[in-house]
Write a structure and sequence with these properties.
Two copies of one chain form a homodimer.
Chain A lengths: L7 E5 L3 H12 L3 E5 L7 H5 L3 E2 L3 H7 L2 E4 L4 H8 L5 H4 L5 E4 L5 H13 L3 E4 L2 E2 L2 H5 L4 E4 L3 H14 L4 E3 L4 H31 L4 H11 L3 H12 L10 H18 L4 H15 L12 H6 L6 H4 L1
Parallel strand pairs in A: 1-2, 1-4, 2-3, 4-5, 5-6, 8-9
Antiparallel strand pairs in A: 7-8
Keywords (chains A, B): Oxidoreductase
Protein name (chains A, B): 6-phosphogluconate dehydrogenase NADP-binding domain-containing protein
GO molecular function, one term (chains A, B): NADP binding
Chain lengths: 307, 307
């Protein structure tokens, strides 16, 4: 690949994330082309030294690496296909990095469309908020051809300083990872909502509840449970067994009932514990209810869990 | 309170948590009395220099501070009440610390029973696993009379090195905090189960999925969302709005459907987003769906959220 001075990068889509990405690429000394559906949004970046393209096709005609940062599956297909689309102008061996949160199914389709043109598609959805984008500190999951990923790493590092998770060859995988990240963050946010509501109704001051989160999210035990679930190793030397965990879950539900706070995650977990016990995991570590997700998905139980 | 040499502490209940607590109190130079329903379990601690009591009453007759570490509400009431119960032998101004995970309602009742005898009840449920108990590194939530809590702090620190969260005067509050902690940990475990099942079926290697958790749980953004939810400040300068969040939630459900993985937390969050939008929060930050828990609990919406 050409040196930084000769490499031209395009950013397609200048929402708050795309704008942050573009600014950081420009700041790092790359030649930059920008495109946005509403062209007025390109002004600040053009004033700062970028070129502007009229269409995704025009951007593709000039660039080696294109980063699209849009809203959903449809908006990505929209700028890729058609008369003025990116694939109509793209040059052999160019690379399109898709930074939008899209479905893994779409990533598989987009890869095929690009391969038919002899060009490269890389999944690179980003995680973060507008302020982290502006600071060049987004996180990203990258998947696709590893030799192509090697060629784009320095460009991606402009906007994801230190936060790349290489997710392998299958372009669908980075999308699964991004959705998993959102699922994880959304679950934590929902849990915050449930716990603040519960504690507020019990009149526990919010600064005390806050200490709980500060303590738990830096605790190594939180990651240790990830390993138990990952490896399906629910050994339990002297700890609380799944059967005992049921007591605590019922206490949580009862504590919510007492003050009128529904705790829907607890209902889910309750049923997962019942499922776990019904499937022979009652004497395993209490965290064994995590297996319910695999059981419900038809993933076969590990032999050792039945012993 | 008497000096360490003259202070006698009892531990009632020698499961793996109680044993760890007792060992660490003994190790720190306190005189220790132990009691357990199955008396054989006291042997190792007696060999190490503890005294053993026949009944909770006998333990109470000898001790200044009693720590009970049992299974549930019923087992705590059981050792407190009756002819051979702790309250039958307790001495004026003694302190009973209840380390069991019990309901906040039980803590309120137990406080009353102790007050009638002119003695002190402190809620001190502990968080951790047998190995952390053995290491003296449990976490605890303490609530009750603050002057009494001051008198027991050095004893509690024997088994909860550096991990005390003072939860105020109301003895119910430490129990609410402990159940909140369990709710938090259980939610994370369930989420691990869901994400590993989803990624396994998409054939994402588990070591890549693991990197996601290592990254997220050390990320300051996770705690930043706690503050947004705590303060109900869902401002959103350029970020994804709740309305936009709905797209990602539907993507998650679809990504699960594609490979046959039910994601029950996502169903819950989906409904919370719909509730949030229906209550005028659609243009707020996407994390505003956490408000659903308060809305569903009859907690009045903040004026500013409607603006």
């Amino acid at each position: 690949m050409a040196s930084k001075e000769n490499l031209i990068v395009a950013v397609l889509g200048l929402g708050s994330m795309g704008t942050g990405i573009a600014e950081n690429i420009l700041k790092n000394g790359y030649k930059l082309v920008v495109w946005n559906r509403t062209q007025s949004k390109t002004k600040a970046l053009v004033d700062a030294g970028s070129m502007s393209a009229e269409t995704p096709r025009e951007a593709a005609q000039q660039c080696d690496i294109m980063i699209s940062c849009l809203f959903d599956d449809a908006s990505v297909f929209d700028i890729v296909q058609g008369e003025n689309g990116l694939l109509a102008g793209i040059r052999k061996d160019s690379i399109h990095i898709s930074a939008t949160t899209i479905s893994p199914m779409a990533a598989t389709q987009l890869t095929k469309l690009h391969q038919e043109k002899g060009v490269h598609y890389i999944s690179g959805p980003v995680l973060g908020r507008p302020d982290t984008a502006a600071a060049g500190k987004l996180r990203t999951f990258l998947s696709g051809s590893q030799s192509v990923i090697d060629r784009i790493t320095t460009v991606v590092e402009c906007y994801c300083g230190g936060g790349l998770i290489n997710s392998g060859e299958d372009p669908a995988h980075a999308c699964v990872m991004k959705l998993s990240a959102n699922l994880c963050v959304a679950s934590i946010i929902d849990m915050y909502g449930q716990i603040y509501a519960l504690n507020e109704k019990w009149k526990v001051p919010t600064d005390i509840t806050k200490q709980l989160f500060s303590m738990l999210f830096t605790h190594p035990g939180i990651l240790a449970y990830s390993e138990k679930v990952r490896n399906r190793e629910y050994t339990n030397p002297g700890g609380v067994a799944l059967r005992g965990g049921l007591k605590d879950i019922n206490l949580m539900l009862h504590t919510g009932e007492e003050v009128g706070v529904p705790l829907p995650f607890v209902n889910v977990i309750h049923d997962h514990i019942v499922t776990g016990i019904a499937n022979g995991l009652g004497d395993k570590d209490w965290s064994a209810f995590a297996e319910s997700a695999r059981l419900n998905s038809g993933i076969q139980q590990k032999e050792s869990n039945n012993s």
